[in-house]
Amino acid sequence: MPTYFRFAPLVFALSVAALNAQQTPSFFETAAFVSGQGGYNTYRIPAIVRTTNGTLLAFCEGRKNSGGDSGDIDIVLRRSIDNGATWGPMMVVQEEGGSALITIGNPAPVVDEATGYIHLLFCRNNDRVFHTVSTNDGVSWSARDEITSSVKRSNWGWYATGPGHGIQLKRGAQAGRLVVPCDHVTTNNLHGAQAIYSDNHGVTWRLGAFTDGANGVNPNETTCEELVGAAPGGGARIYFNSRDQSGSASGTRSEARSNDGGTSFSGPFTNRAAFVCPVVQGSLLRLRATDEGGSENRLLFACPNNASSRVMLSVWSSTNEAVSWSAPKLIYSGPSAYSDMARTSAGDVALLYEKGNASPYETITLARFNEGWLESTATAAENPLPAFWNFEEKAAGQTASTNPEAILDVSPYALNNNLTAQKPFSYVGGSANYGAGAALAFDGTGGLQLSDAATANHFDFGPSNSFTIEAVFRIPSGSTQIGSLVAKDYGSVLPSWWLRVQNGQLRFLVSDDSVESSVTGGTLVNDGQWHHVAAVRDTGPSTTRLLRLYLDGVLLSNVVDATTGSLANSQPLNIGRFGASSSRNLTGDIDMVRITPQALTPAGFLGHYTQFDADGDRLPDNFERAAGGSLQMLGSGDADGDG
């Protein structure tokens, strides 16, 4: 076992003014690990700490041959001495057996600010537990020492440290203690959480608080942070937040507390349904503390913000020590999963997370942002859920094989049959049919088609289902074409539904194979200008079903819907084209499409906007287009009401 020498701490002092002053919002990202590079198929399971010298250490699993959770897996590291702006070369911290199928994973680093040492706990084959230490800012690491017998009970099988950083306590009777949250599975298949700790600067480790699943809650991967103020008995208070694995309680997060520095839990894990997350790991960070000079206490929690899919990585804030949490602030709307956070020497947040386009596991990316950005009002969401296509972001010649923000089938059929996987369209910006990168230009010879033979019922709606189809579009001035905007129509196969332009007007039709109902708008849209259309099928609460058609937020017409059966069956979904006839393919431009499984009113339409810029992007009064295609706020408040 290594020998440890205590020396004066080299802790960076964080300026109170830097933490509390009004800041200009700052946000940037760098990719720390890119799957397929550096000799590894996939990088997963990020963990990050800031050393007492101010260096950021980004750890993860390097998975040699596949993205699977077992196999030839190593722990790798990159260092940044400039707060994540750049990264040094990748180094292997732990590996065993060359190409042998041995899993070395679940990195859980913790910094001892009294010694400056960085301790790394990890697992071998999710069974045995080990410890290594760096005494030189992460440049090199000691030989591993096994601590399994000290931290694992005899009736536990599967075991995981972290993943994510551990903490050093600063308050109460256990001040100075190193604490690492972990989880396990018992030999009778109960999930549980535990804390392991060291009171002698990492020389030895022991098992502290532990619990197995109970009351419908099954804690899994766990993260923790110390709370301000000692417990009534003088102990250090710790808040634990855990992934709830297949629990019977509602929600996917659970939480517990300790009043004795992680020696025991003060009560069972309880469900926290306020977090809307899939079953996935999350991370915690102490950003501010009043007993460290902050004007208020502030904890951060990071996790994907979607009930079923690993997308929309977001950050929640608590200013009352995890009693309540803010609405989530979106970091990235696409595929995203595991994360960890550290505070930089400048007081910014360094969020290391799994990020990709088609999959969350394409990169491990560092997002660095300050409190000014965290507190700033969100700009208008160009990709509001539930089902949305935004076509203006791809430059000419750039292939868009996926649009991760929202290509998700939200029809009742799909939800009832578990068809919730992303279903991407593929197109090339600037190709013959698809414009020059701002929206998609259709020339009447083709369009986009979403077809999946195994699950052909995408966006099918039943007799009692309401839904709304929206599009931002323009067609040439004076055009008399019959051109499809969005259609579930294929050859002679009925039933179907579709939205199209014909003779300069809009028409929305639904058919159950016995009855057709349609509504036509009398206002001409063939003026070469951008417009927003909403086609609504409303099946309740009135006994009379209605079809409504809106143009730029104004109701054009509504009619009774006489259909009584299902709408659409086994056809592909088309944008800018018809299945029934190529002569009904669109000549014009489509910038955005959204399909919502409810009858919306104008207040719910894509931010209820009516003005557009030259590219067809919504343009509320206090927004303008910024470089790169995103909307930039000019004034205060959320002008278009979409959060």
Q: Counting H and I runs of at least 4 residues, what is the number of helices? A: 4
The largest sheet is: 7 strands, antiparallel
Enumerate the spans where pLDDT stays under 50 for 5 or more consecutive residues: 1-21, 379-385, 402-408, 418-424, 619-643
Helix percentage: under 10%
Say how many strands there are.
41
The outline comes out as: elongated
**Proportion of beta-strand residues:** 35-45%
Structural class: mainly beta
Strand order of the largest sheet: 1-24-23-22-21-20-19
Overview of the structural elements:
Mean pLDDT is 83; it is low at 1-21, 379-385, 402-408, 418-424 and 619-643. Helices cover 3% and strands 40% of the residues. It has 643 residues and is mainly β. It has a seven-stranded antiparallel beta sheet. Strands 25, 28, 30, 35, 36, 37 and 39 form a seven-stranded antiparallel beta sheet that branches. The protein has a six-stranded antiparallel beta sheet with strand order 29-38-31-32-33-34, with no helix packed on it.
Gist?
This protein is an all-beta fold and 643 residues long. The protein is built from four helices and 41 strands. A hairpin with a 4-residue loop joins strand 12 and strand 13.
Key words describing this protein structure:
seven-stranded antiparallel β-sheet; single chain; mainly beta; elongated; disordered C terminus; 41 strands; 4 helices; disordered N terminus; 643 residues; 40% strand
